[in-house]
Amino acid sequence: MNTEKDFSPLTPNIVRALNDKLYEKRKVAALEIEKLVREFVAQNNSAQIRHVIQILATEFALSQHPHSRKGGLIGLAACSIALGKDSGLYLKELIDPVLTCFNDSDSRLRYYACEALYNIVKVARGAVLPHFNVLFDGLSKLAADPDPNVKSGSELLDRLLKVKKGKIEIIHVLESVPDINLLDYLPEFLDGLFQILGDSSKEIRRICEVVLGEFLKEIKKNPSSVKFAEMANILVIHSYDLIQLTSMTWMREFIQLAGRVVLPYSSGILTAVLPCLSYDDRKKSTKEAASACNHSLMKLVTPEDDVDDEESQTKSSPQSDGSPSKKESDLNGFSNISFFTPASSDRPAVTLDLDGIVQVLDRHLHDSSTGMMTRIAVLKWLYHLYIKTPRKMFKHTDSLFPMLLKTLSDESDEVILKDLEVLAEIASSPAGQTDASGSCDNSDSKTELHIPGGVRDGTCYLTGCKVTDLSPSTPSMNSYFYKFMINLLKRFSLERKLLEMRGAFIIRQLCLLLHAENIFHSMADILLKEEDLKFASTMVQTLNTILLTSAELFQLRNQLKDLRTQESCALFCCLYRSWCHNPVATVSLCFLTQNYRHAYDLIQKFGDLEVTVDFLMEVDKLVQLIESPIFTYLRLQLLDVEHNPYLIKALYGLLMLLPQSQAFQLLSHRLSCVPNPELMRTVEDPKAPVKDKRLAQPHIDYSELLQHFDRVQSKHLEVRHQRAGRSEHPDRKL
């Protein structure tokens, strides 16, 4: 090489060192070049930078002299290091001469070329991607190089191009190439992108988010070319904390764009989505995306998912003319799109993974750490499934039922309300009938309500009234209704705190969701056979308070107030037999139904009962109720003294039971307001007979009801004596 030639801005010392046969001297020259180029970068002198690169390429890297070529390669690498992030502006000038040296006959020179390119690529990173094709060709040659050192160097360079950031940038560049549709290959590398998205490097995550964002835009623009089904599980797998928001965002778009195509993956989607619904405001965006996913997925479940597989195949068979139906061609708002709407003969049947969904929902209900909003969402799902796919859902009811009952003990009122909606749907759905006739072989289940206990030879204790004719106005429940009532009362019995804190709330809501008469009828039936008499008395007291005070029971109170039909009389008798577990509740029921003479007869029997503090407190509450709006009609009837003598006698009976207390003063004052019957007698009827218009109902055997009351109270007395004996003699065996 002519050393006297002008190589400025390179100094003669740099030129001599670049041509030296010793590597150490060439390295010193490279450091000088690096320093020189950094100065040009600081001055923003791109012309001088290009001039230096041109000299190194033409006069050194492409020289005929081997040592000069080696000096040129190390000099170009030094330029790249000095340029840093700006090296992308000069990549073609830097890369081309290096790639030319890949074909050199000298293996040492090929190795130095590989080393130089490694340093250039390491600095330029993603900026080299537009040159990916030529780089790939060069690497392909070196991969088969006979020299082991050259081959090893090429492998290092290959690995450099495959680091996470490099991969993302390669994909980003390829995605921008118009002739390449990467959406076709997205299922093959989407998993890798989400793995990279979870990288600890903030920079790598940022680049990956940009790339994924670009792909999501393309998916929205071209949904017909997207293989949603192949990517659904990838999103489910990568729904952990670090990348959860991105995963949920993609999942939301997939569900909205793909529609029922994602139904087979519903259980996995719900596994990822449900926990996010209980996030606080720190993860508000993730929670909102998960909520949208959950809502959209729920809307995809329709009654057509309740048909059997054979029926589904029949319905999806092609029409006689071989063309898809209008419903198929308009699916999800995309008409004439082959991915969503192939000819029905080619379209695979979309099957709802109901078993998997139920398993996921059940698992979240059983998990005590599940958040409140997640539990609500689970119950909404169950309700929706029972509405849309009742036939298939009832196959899972026996396994779900215990946990649904347990959920009634939840701390949240909103959770309990949703739980009651599910239980009410189970209890009233026609799909819950065990056979066509609605009968049930289970001895613990009954499909139709009936008057309890008081049945003799097919006839209840109502004159001429058959069991099957008792309450035609009450809608029939299915075989799970009676099972629900039995288990609910059993739960109240085992969890007295639940009965005390939430019992009235639960029963009132059930009266709204189901027919109130059904609820009271069935509970009275069950309580009649209750062996725990103390619980039976407490439960009757609770039901009686609800009956007399709750707005939800207005219609039922009106039905009982006027016993003029066989149905209302049947209801009264049904309640009465269980109400006998609580004497004061029985009297209040008689007041409600205007059976004043019977109320008086009952009060007469109170003298034979054990009068406890609790008993007197119940009488006190009854007096307070008499002064409430519920019994306005009763107080007004006190004006008609002649026709309501037993009402007055019954109230005086209560007065005589009470000690001198506030309730005594209240009732005494009320009775003192009862007018003199002589003053109230009308002129038109001066000798009217004194008669209680509610003396008796032709449909009700009152003497039998009194006998029933005596029998029940005898049982209570016997149990109290047994308890008293055990407390006095704890070691004595009865």
Describe this structure in words.
It is a single chain. This protein has helices spanning 12-18, 23-42, 46-61, 66-83, 91-100, 107-124, 132-143, 148-161, 164-176, 186-197, 202-221, 228-237, 244-258, 266-273, 284-300, 309-315, 326-329, 354-366, 372-388, 390-393, 397-406, 413-428, 479-494, 496-513, 516-528, 533-549, 554-561, 566-579, 583-592, 596-605, 613-626, 632-637, 645-657, 662-672, 677-680, 702-728, and strands spanning 455-456, 459-460. The termini are far apart. The relative contact order is 0.04. α3 packs antiparallel against α4, α13 (244-258) packs parallel to α15 and α24 packs across α26. With 734 residues, it is mostly helical. Strands 1-2 form a two-stranded antiparallel ribbon. Residues 315-347, 435-474 and 688-695 have low confidence and may be disordered.
**Would you tell me the overall average pLDDT?**
81
Please indicate the percent range of residues in DSSP E strands (runs of 2 or more). Answer: under 5%
Low-confidence stretches: 315-347, 435-474, 688-695
Number of strands: 2
Q: What's the alpha carbon Rg, rounded to whole Å?
A: 44 Å
Q: What about the largest sheet? A: 2 strands, antiparallel
Helix content: 55-70%
Count of discrete alpha- or pi-helical segments spanning 4 or more residues: 36
> Distance N terminus to C terminus?
122 Å
Class based on secondary structure composition and strand pairing? mainly alpha
Describe the global form.
rod-shaped
Q: What strand order characterises the main sheet?
A: 1-2
